[in-house]
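Appendix B. Raw example, untouched.
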Amino acid sequence: MRTTEMLIPTLREVPAEAEVVSHKLLLRAGFIRKAASGVYTYLPLAQRVLRKIKNIVREEMDKQGGQELLMPIIQPAEMWLESGRWHVYGPELFRLKDRHNRDFCLGPTHEEVITLLMRGEVRSYKQMPQLLYQIQNKFRDERRPRFGLMRGREFIMKDLYSFDRDEAALDVSYKKMHEAYTNVFNRCGLQFRPVEADSGAIGGSSTHEFMVLAESGEAAILYCTKCDYAANVEKATSQPAAGLDPTTQQLALKEVSTPGQKSADQVAAFLSMATGQIIKTMIYQTDKEIVAALVRGDRDVNEIKLQNVLGALTLELAGDAAIQQATGAVAGYVGPVGLKNIRMVADPEVMAMANAVAGANKAEAHFANVNPNRDFKPELVEDIRLVRAGEPCPKCQAELQEAKGIEVGQIFKLGTKYSETLGATFLDENGKEKPIVMGCYGIGVSRTMAAAIEQNNDENGIIWPAAIAPFHAVVIPVSAKDENQVKLAGKLYQELNQTGVETVLDDRTERPGVKFKDADLIGYPLRIVVGGKAIEEGVVEVHQRRTGKTELIPVAQVVEQINKLLPTL
């Protein structure tokens, strides 16, 4: 297309509302415009990028046997009431009523719709496996929409659901999607890592997130450089703690005065000991009860792990009043010895401690020489600590590294969570009724576009991977008044498009510098400049956006050379 015929409203100034790089550049380069908080209009350039990402997704889903359908955005409350999620999903669920005062919601996800569809259509094991997907807008009423397309209230998503007869068949479907997702993000030209993750509100037994690595990422991941281990910090584990040395002499429990010393670091310094010898006791309030979580003093509680261990819907630190009422002590002096009527969860590292220090459940005092099992016995011993970079990998013991990532996809093994609740069953070969075994697999299409920019940019603008760039190349005549330049630029523009190179002709009467800046801002992988040398010497300037490399190519060879160069970008 010709630039004079296109809607590309580029901006010179950075909009005040934009915080992260992708948001700034999408606005400045004329890809999106804000309609409301967390809601955007995708302009033509963005639509071209999104279409390319969708096409890659479709091809990889279809290659694995996926079948595309389209489910309703507006979902009746009855479905969500039947699954039990209408009242527990939370305020992120957009709720509305029709003219008959019936409750509906705007779909943030489609487990209910697809499960009820299959409940009515699947009767026999012979009808499975099924892999059904859609690409559609989703809606979540984020309390604080931010970062442009990274955390919006309306976004484009691909969601696929698998339906299998048993866990072994689900494993096959899960591996297919893992492979498909790997192919999708490789084809999009992104650097990413699949990581173990927590399943969150969706539920399920196993899940992986696909993280695009970028400094602006909100999520922290831990990974091993020596093996394939990688996990979100919410899920990460480390080398198991060594067991208690049976030869260690357990000293007599004694109370020590610790006036004004509340934190683990303060107590350790006051008693001239390592922070790792302190038992940190954190009091939490769940939707069911008050609980005490025990970790080593140099560790932190991983609240996601703790919530999953407890099977709680909600989890938050108890307030000072609640702590005193439950334990009889003020915050900072709570400990496991003598703690009554409170469920206690200890990390395995705590159980390997000997002669430790813990709160004495009275002001200004701690117990010394605290020994697990002798002085207290927790109801649960589970991994509830937050793993940090530098700790040993749970697979190979190499040192774990930390990076930031942007979640662009996630795959879940749902099992029978929804099929049992919603009655989606089938008859096996023996005529026995069984619940369908399900999986759920999502890709944030619009978020992938933003994540690609977060990973591919410089001070001049976007650097698109060629596979998802809105156009592959832009042809720029240096002088709009030179008829020979304009004619040659038009000829190259037509020839490139005819050979499949998606090309823009910048036919504006702007100065060359303005055109070059816009080309860099928008991020065309190739810029072809037709100047005086094209007429005098028969060569044009070809500039690669990613590498900054510029070379002179004979006019007669431009189309051939560009077609050879493009697959490498």
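End of appendix B.
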